[in-house]
Write a structure and sequence with these properties.
- The complex is a heterodimer of chains A (635) and B (210).
- With 635 residues, chain A is mainly alpha-helical.
- Chain A has two domains: 75 residues, no CATH class; 499 residues, Cytochrome c oxidase-like, subunit I domain (Cytochrome C Oxidase, Chain A, Up-down Bundle).
- The longest helix of chain A is centred in the middle third of the chain and has 35 residues.
- Chain B has 210 residues and is mainly α.
- Chain B has one domain: Four Helix Bundle (Hemerythrin (Met), subunit A).
- In chain B, helix 3 packs antiparallel against helix 4.
- Chain B is elongated, with a radius of gyration of 21 Å.
- The N and C termini of chain B lie far apart (62 Å).
- Classes of the chains: A mainly alpha (635), B mainly alpha (210).
- Bound molecules: protoporphyrin IX containing FE and copper (II) ion.
- The site of protoporphyrin IX containing FE has 26 residues of chain A, from helix 11, helix 13, helix 14, helix 15 and helix 16.
Chain lengths: 635, 210
């Protein structure tokens, strides 16, 4: 059997490219779908959809139908229906779509099945919404400059908080795996592609559709629940809450399928010699995360489906007066929600350990311990969700169990720290920008973990729950952990992914300003929390203004630091475009043995792995390939 | 001709091992069962949670009893569909095509019957906790079942085409169409069997325990 070419037709050029299945068509059909759905909905309910008005909340059916058909239109416009329809007519399987280099930049605006293209789509898409959500944070801190209501009303303030939280959570859930796992896993395991390449593209574009939907909440009065969407506040909300439901359900769909795709790929498509015990630690991180994504996200989808049904077809899942219970939502949400926080954390651990070997020039210390830690965290994260509900009506006898199970997670988390320390110990450390971010990760995440123990301890959680202390806790873990690992990954892999160097000098400025401003923003929040400042309240006790102003100003400094990063990206990637070396970090993992830019098929020959992934400081054995590189020559 | 990741063109580029994609289908068929388990587990959770809570005796408001006859008919159609298809999947491809067609037909009939039941039902969605779970579970079950039916129909359509043309076609994956087809039939029939088992559980909880 032989390989057959996929796209035999010559690519269209110039303006004619706009015609066909691509993002533009997707947007047009998406808008068409929105109006069609609304039309049908208005017909069913006998009402019109109102924007920006007091009645904005009255027509959930039209809004929901509009969103649903809008998303379908968008996906059809991108060409996602073509292949499934072909298969329905009996056409043979085909894996590739728009993978050829001849498509140029146009590939990035279409359904592409090249994992490297999807990874870059993720990188840019996630970057955009990360900045939007960050901007919301600046607005939140602007309101909190004064203890009274002064810039936004309470309603708008809560919507900002909700948009910031939901968008960050929804976006950054794929923040590390989207760009880095999509790009790296197929290379690191020698598979050239994800098991289901079209699914990979699908998870990206569905996420983007969700993000846009979340932004439209402002047309319908916003939502007041924060990212957790609690009932009964949600059920009472205007149609702005429908945007939250739809957004998070799409995020859930994207997560679930992405995790599924990763598990299948890593399980079945490892090249010869890539045994489980040779899997790079980043791939292990992705693997543990992928299981959680695949299994936890469906519960989120179901919980939101129930919320949507309550609002449209008048079921009463969450409506206490009619046989439902708001607490049901809280439970379902957190059964998903706690695995979710480790979905955010695990890939970061993978990146940090992966990079530390390179910059300490040592093999990973305690490889098996690290793997055990990651899998242990994944497993335990299913048994702790009630720690979010300690003071929300849980049966008091259940508290000790969840307290202990939560504190137990510190153990496998400790393994990861141990492995990081062991790897650094007596290493020849190079303080490059990626390494600085990794070291900062250790510092920040430690504080996140320690404050987590205060939260998981029932007596102290009675005070800290719902306060700025909890808020500081999870920002230390997520911003201090995930976001720092995100930047470490960017500075480390962008030279390979994009073939250009990022300025090291600007990188260092970015790092130091971010590290200082981050700690200066979030450390005082622990104190404010202890003093009793609650989350998600627009006004506060005037005696706390000093600290709040300090925090707000530090937050602006985070914003400025991000502008340095943005400038670096534009300057290095767009203006200067200084080609990167093939292996600027002298790393030994396989992605650095490929030429830059990496050819579309990654390797000419499927690599054969015959060594551990981190052979730093180990003398090459004669007659044996010294690194985990493809044996039969390079691409 | 352009080389691409999935379809490397040219003599010097080694194709991927042919066993990868069939294995991916095998594993994928099992994993997707995990995902739908957690999805429907949410409804099981809601069922027991709201039933145990029975706030203000609002688990059932009024006479909330779905017609057991229709319930049994729906479950039987699904069950029959899954058993026929799975048994045939272990035999020749000719059997698979006929069984697949029967399975799809039965499945669609079950979906249709479900929506007929909504029309003749004498309680509405707002009749308490039970009604919420009943509508939520059965409706999403019907919708999700379309996914499985689509998967089976793809196998049927391929078999149909192969029979008409009298040969397998080349695929751009370095795996023969025969191997992919067999893997597809195996995975889809496993998935469908598992999915139907959840449907039987739904029948037991919603109609017998309810
Ligand atoms: C040793 C590790 C950890 C422990 C013991 C721990 C414990 C807790 C506890 C008990 C709460 C509930 C506090 C309350 O609402 O009163 C909480 C909240 C939270 N944690 Fe952690 N945590 C840990 C690590 C993490 C990590 C790694 C992440 C994410 C990357 C994370 C993210 C969150 C988030 C987002 C919340 C707040 C959710 C909300 O109410 O909006 N935590 N943590
Ligand atoms: Cu938690």
């Amino acid at each position: 059997m032989s390989a057959v070419a996929v796209s035999s037709a010559a690519p269209r050029t110039g303006w004619r490219k706009l015609w066909g299945f691509n993002m533009l068509t997707g947007i047009l059909l998406g808008i068409g779908g929105w109006f069609l759905g609304q039309l049908i909905g208005n017909h069913i309910t006998g009402q019109d959809v109102h924007y920006y008005s007091a009645q904005a909340g009255e027509n959930d059916i039209s809004v929901m139908l509009g969103y649903t058909l809008g998303v379908i239109g968008f996906l059809v416009g991108l060409g996602f229906a073509n292949y499934p329809l072909k298969r329905l007519l009996g056409h043979p399987p085909a894996l590739a779509e728009r993978e050829s280099e001849a498509e140029g930049v146009f590939r990035y605006f279409t359904l592409s099945t090249d994992h490297k293209v999807v990874a870059k789509q993720y990188m840019v898409g996630i970057g955009v919404f990360f900045f939007v959500a960050g901007l919301n944070a600046m607005l939140i801190r602007t309101e909190l400059l004064q203890p009274n209501v002064h810039v936004f009303g309470a309603n708008q303030y809560l919507t900002l908080v909700g948009m910031h939280g939901s968008m960050m959570m929804g976006t950054m859930t794929s923040g590390l795996l989207g760009p880095f796992a999509t790009w790296l896993v197929p290379i690191m395991i020698g598979s050239r592609r994800m098991a289901f390449s079209r699914l990979s593209a699908f998870t990206f574009w569905v996420l983007m559709a969700g993000e846009v939907i979340l932004l439209t909440t402002i047309f319908f009065g916003g939502f007041q629940t924060g990212w957790t969407g609690y009932q009964p506040l949600g059920a009472e909300g205007t149609a702005g809450y429908d945007a939250y439901i739809m957004f998070f359900a799409l995020v859930g769909l994207s997560m679930c399928l992405f995790g599924f795709n990763l598990v299948v790929t890593i399980t079945t498509m490892r090249a010869r010699g890539m045994t489980w015990s040779r899997l790079p630690i980043f791939v292990w991180g992705a693997y543990g995360t992928a299981w959680l994504m695949m299994l936890a996200a469906p519960m989120l989808i179901a919980a939101l489906l129930m919320a949507g049904m309550d609002r449209t077809v008048q079921t009463a899942f969450y409506i206490p007066g009619q046989g439902g219970s708001a607490y049901l939502f809280e439970n379902l949400f957190w059964v998903f929600g706690h695995p979710e926080v480790y979905i955010l954390a695990l890939p970061g651990m993978g990146i940090v350990l992966e990079l530390m070997t390179v910059f300490a020039r040592k093999p990973l210390w305690g490889y098996r311990l690290a793997v055990a830690g990651m899998l242990g965290i994944s497993f335990l994260s299913w048994f702790v969700w009630q720690h979010h509900l300690f003071v929300s009506g849980i049966n008091a006898d259940l508290r000790p169990f969840y307290m202990l199970s939560t504190e137990l997670i510190s153990l496998p988390t400790g393994f990861i720290f141990l492995c990081a320390m062991g790897t650094l110990w007596r290493g020849r450390i190079r303080f490059t920008v990626p390494m600085l971010f990794c070291l900062a990760w250790v510092f920040n995440f430690l504080w996140g973990g320690i404050s987590g123990v205060f939260n998981s301890d029932v007596p102290s959680d009675v005070t800290t729950h719902g306060s700025f202390f909890t808020m500081a806790h999870f920002h230390y873990t997520i911003m201090g952990g995930l976001i720092f690992a995100f930047f470490a990954g960017i500075y480390y892999w962008v030279p390979k992914m994009y073939g250009v160097r990022l300025s090291e000098r600007l990188g260092k400025i970015h790092f130091w300003t971010l590290f200082i401003a981050f700690n200066s923003t979030f450390a005082p929040l622990f104190a404010l929390g202890f003093m009793g400042m609650p989350r998600r309240v627009v006004s506060y006790n005037p005696s706390w203004q000093g600290l709040n102003d300090w925090v707000s100003i530090s937050a602006y400094c985070i914003g400025l630091s991000m502008l340095v990063f943005l400038f670096n990206v534009v300057w290095s990637l767009v203006v200067k475009r200084e080609p990167a070396e093939v292996n600027p970090w002298h790393a030994k993992s396989i992605e650095w043995t490929l030429p830059t830019p990496v050819p579309v098929h990654d390797f000419d020959e499927i690599p054969v792995f015959d060594a551990d992934p981190y052979p730093y400081g180990i003398e090459p054995v004669p007659g044996r390939a010294p690194v985990a590189a493809p044996v039969g020559g390079r691409a | 001709m352009e080389a691409s990741a999935s379809a490397p063109v040219g003599r010097h580029i080694e194709p991927e091992p042919p066993e990868w994609q069939p294995r991916a289908l095998w594993v994928g068929g099992r994993l997707i069962c995990g995902s739908i388990s957690f999805f429907f587990a949410s409804f099981v959770f809601a069922f027991f949670y709201l039933k145990a809570l029975d706030l203000n005796h609002n688990w059932k408001i009024g006479n909330v009893v779905p017609d057991a006859g229709i319930g049994i008919a729906i479950a039987a159609l699904y069950l029959f569909s899954a058993v026929v298809y799975r048994l045939a999947a272990r035999r020749t491809t000719g059997d698979s095509m006929a069984a697949g067609m029967i399975a799809v037909f039965m499945g669609l009939a079950a979906v249709a019957l479900q929506f007929i039941q909504y029309i003749v039902l004498d309680f509405g969605a707002a009749s308490g906790g039970y009604a919420a779970v009943f509508f939520g579970w059965t409706a999403s079950y019907a919708v999700v079942s379309l996914m499985g039916l689509y998967w089976i129909q793809v196998q049927v359509a391929t078999l149909w085409r192969v029979r008409r043309e009298g040969r397998m076609r080349e695929t751009e994956v370095p795996t023969s169409e025969t191997a992919l087809l067999l893997a597809g039939i195996e995975a889809s029939s496993f998935y469908w069997g598992y999915f139907v088992a959840i449907g039987v559980l739904a029948y037991i909880l919603l109609y017998l325990v309810g």
